[in-house]
Hints:
Blueprint: H1 3-6, H2 11-19, H3 25-43, E1 46-49, H4 51-59, E2 71-75, H5 102-109, E3 113-118, E4 130-131, E5 135-136, H6 152-159, E6 165-166, E7 169-170, H7 176-182, E8 185-188, E9 209-210, E10 213-214, H8 217-227, H9 245-248, E11 257-260, H10 272-287, E12 291-294, H11 301-327, H12 329-333, H13 337-348, H14 351-374, E13 377-381, H15 397-406, H16 412-418, H17 420-429, H18 436-441, E14 445-452, E15 458-464, H19 470-483
Parallel strand pairs: 2-3, 11-12, 11-13
Antiparallel strand pairs: 1-3, 4-5, 6-10, 7-9, 8-10, 8-14, 13-15, 14-15
Organism: Simiduia curdlanivorans
InterPro entries: Amidase, Amidase_CS, Amidase_dom, AS_sf
Protein name: Amidase
Amino acid sequence: MKFSEYWQYDGLGLAELVRKREVTPSELLEVACQRLEAVNPQLNAVIHSFKEAAQLRIRQKLPQGVFAGVPFILKDLLDDLTGQPTSFGTEQVRWWPEKNAEIVNRYLSTGLVPFAKSNLPEFGLMISTESKAFGPAHNPWKMGHSTGGSSGGSAAAVAARIVPMASANDGGGSIRFPAACCGVFGLKPSRGRNPTGPFEAEGWDGAIAGHPITLSVRDSAAMLDALCGPELGASFLLPKPKMPFSEQLKVPIKPMRIGYSLKPMIPASVSPEARAAVEQSVKLLKSLGHQLEEADPVIDAEQMWQDFMVVISGHTAAKVAQIKQIWGAKVAGSLEPGTLSAAMLGRSFSSADVAQAKEGWYKVRYAMAEYLNRYDMLLTPTLIAEPAPHGVIPPNKFEALQMKLGHRLPLGKLLMNSGLLFKMSERVLSRMAFTLMGNVTGLPSMSVPLYWAPSGLPLGTQITGRLNDEGRLLRLAKQLEIAQPWFERRPLL
């Protein structure tokens, strides 16, 4: 198979060719590796490859699952695979897991062939993939621009057609944000839908969800069928649907009442291009028979980001302490200033602060439940602006120095109460203005590639549904995919 043929298929399409014996898994792996070698020097989307291990997996006979023989890339965070190190996006931490993450077991059960790990920011904390350890991942649509984060390497690899899908996870927008930046499809499932253990059990108190970034909606649905379901020790459990998600795609979707909003849920400014993306999507949905009404959710934007920071910084502090215990103080001290600063925040807050912040999460969840009683879904921008040039979102040298010098001092409450914390974090937090709500509430949410700016850079449209209602989200995405196809639209690398 040549690349000129390979890129024309999604994952299910490639698997069908394997089943029909028109191509072998080894041939698909070879094409994917050739594509990786051709474009990764430009993109820096992949930071570790293991072709020989992938070839051995094929020789040992693959499970005959729905994606048997399809090449796959794993994110180097949470999606741990035995025999391969997990770096977490750091310079010095290398962890060799004694067993697979449960979600990786389910990926493997479909017959996928992992052969590489994707680039990411350190610990997935940044909304742009520009780590000190591995350098920036480049947007396939415009070199020198962000792929988003934290699953930026995965999104770039899919957009560049190295693979038709790649694993991702989302704690503040990290599936939807990079999918929007790179012009591909990204679904964040409901809390409790897909496994997160055994190593992270309750990722960020349930804010994190894992699911692949894909080219096609049907691949996302088929993968959700394979991934969903209970796992041992899970805190959040959702039952498997009575009808598989792949079958639900075949059911025509009825006209819906959809609310849309351009009001940020974290203090931010929405660019003209982000507004244009929403306006175009609203027009498209109306043409498909849906009723669209502008209506803003009633959410305290200032309080939501503060509550999120209190909880997440606590998890970061625990992770840094774990690294210090296992790898030593020198390795812990080598972490990026932003990571150390977040850990300082976490050590500054009390357990009472965390309990109060979780009450704030509940208030957002209740507000969205009220909203989704009136509307079937909520439509917003995914991004507040076009993907940023490299160097805009991460801390500059002076800010990094300040973070490095102050990370040992318990300044969290002072920074929060003075307003300095938001000023220091605004370039990251403001860009999560529409994605963060889905993580705080656990609601399913997707970014659909419906708009490209005149610059050539994509901006996604985010649509959020009710808990446990991924089936209807996917059916709407399928309707949009048919009405305004994006599969043939690819960056020319």
